Protein: Export protein
Amino acid sequence: MKKDSLLKSSLWISISGIFSRILAVVYIIPWNIWIGPLALGAANALYGKVYNIYNLFLIIATAGIPSAISKEVAAHNALGRYDQSEKLLKKYTLYMTLVGIVLAGFMFFGAKYVAIIFAAGDMRVITPTKYLSIAILIIPALGIMRGYIQGYAFISFSAFSQVIEQIARVAYMLYATYTIMVLQKGSYMSAVNQSTFASFIGATLAYAFLIWMRHRVRKSIPAEDVKTAAEVPDSQLTKVNFGSMLKSAIPFLLVDTIMTVLQLFDQTSFVWIYQNVIHASQRTVDNLYAMFGFQANKLIMVLVSLAISVSATIIPALSALISRKAKQKDIQKLLRNIVQFTIFIILPAAFGMIGIGSQLWTVFYGTDTLGTQILIVSCAEAFFYCIFMILENVLQVDGRTKTSMIYLALAYLIKVILQYPLTIYMGAFGPVVATTVAFMIMGHFAFRLINKQYSIVDKTLAIKLLKIVFDSVVMLIVVYGADFLLTQFINSNTKIGATIIIVICAILGIIVYGFLVYKDGSLKVIKEIRGTEIY
Structure:
């Protein structure tokens, strides 16, 4: 078994992430149909609120440990001390399982208080929160195993486990929803409850797969690569205990939670503003919140998965270079490749989604001009979030944890300050724009700091980035133009018509962008990172 390269790792996580996100979006079509039009707005709003709460507890349950484990395992393995990696796995699986039990208990027995704090007192979230608490029992151990596998540079296995998790989760959701709503003519509340329980099913199967893969990973290490304490003394290793691991993990935790925390802030502040200041009805609040807080968010998570893929490979690769005390020019080269590759992947993806935004919304949620406009703004939010998250992880791996946390706190502060006036002035667009501005401003400062240390940006990189931007803009114009022309002949207000337009425009966009990046040499970035080993 050969370790994954930086390119293979990014591609695997990108593919698995995109597949998982697309699956998480596609299931909405039958789910919405079976829920029925009368309960659709309420069901989407409820499901969105519950999952925002779940995501917060999920990230707290893993506490950023997977990223920290990945970082430490890669550092130890780069020096040949695989025995230390095994100790880390066993020790922190036990610790984090106990954390999961405590959090699951709090979610189950304190569901009423969770609803008051995080859902503006919406008591409908109590029961589904209890169902989700069961998944928290296994999620921490799953996160530890994923970080361990990633640290060994077998990131493809970790990525595939996410695919298994999503397939199992969605399969159970659809089965349960069809049974309750169609066969039994039951309540949408029961369907939402079972849909949340599906997370436990998916996590269990993913964990079983990773346990099997762990044995294969261990057997893949050549005997000559294994070092003993006599060859590489413990004094050369970073001493890791639970306290130091938490110290390393908490910054990753805070970065990972920012989007979830901001969404929780949105669902409480938006509801409060619309009910107490604008005096809107509950139905209006549910419909508007569902648009930007659940429906648009589901679609843009495809973009976010791309950033996660790049981020997951940055941490062990950069950590290994730093642990070996690599030359500054080697770190500089890696960071330049990461910057170029990130823009090369995320920018055209965001532009492409904007170009076919109207048809995307029609396919999944029905024709709605306001929803389409919110999706377009959400794409900008997703792009700047992706950039900000990657830069924050680079700062942490580079040892600038304090600065990273300051930037994170300032991003929160900007969001909070802008939330009220923008929501009053822009309505449902307000929370999305506030988040976008926060990520954009602090992403700028984070990149400026990294560039100051490593001098990443030079004339050559600037030209390469400008070419990618130009190619992406041309692709957007072509896709948007094709979309406009096709709507003259195909009824885009139907799901079938919108799907046909999406497929044609997507293929055209890929061809145009692929041709442009090939002609101007931007495609060479893939060759640049193809041979880059994680360690």
In short: The mean pLDDT is 80. The two ends are 15 Å apart (CA to CA).
